[in-house]
Amino acid sequence: MTTANDSDETPRVPIVCPDCETTSRVPLSDVADAIERHNDQLHDGEAVAEVDPDIADRIADLAADELGLLENTE
Ligand SMILES: [Zn+2]
To answer: Is this structure's pTM higher than 0.90?
Structure first.
């Protein structure tokens, strides 16, 4: 039997801000917070910074996985 025990490895997610021309990596669990804080502090609450679109799809998977939202049952 194999036990999957990946929970120690926190996936890091790149957040890009075209306005500031910055990329920062934050733990998956902090992404929403980091984006909100950045946009709040630097862009008056406008949604400028966002998750790197290249991996946004993967993030959705990771997030669903982490939150146990993957629906494997019918
Ligand atoms: Zn910015």
So the answer is: no
- Residue 9 DSSP class: S
Residue 45: strand, helix, or coil: coil
Average pLDDT over residues 47-61: 85
- Structural domain boundaries of the chain? 12-66
For residue 71, report the distance from its CA to the centre of ligand 1, in Å.
35
CA–centroid distance, residue 49 to ligand 1 (Å): 6
Q: Is 63 exposed, middle or buried (0-12, 13-18, 19+ CB in 10 A)?
A: middle
Contact 55, 24 (CB under 8 A): no
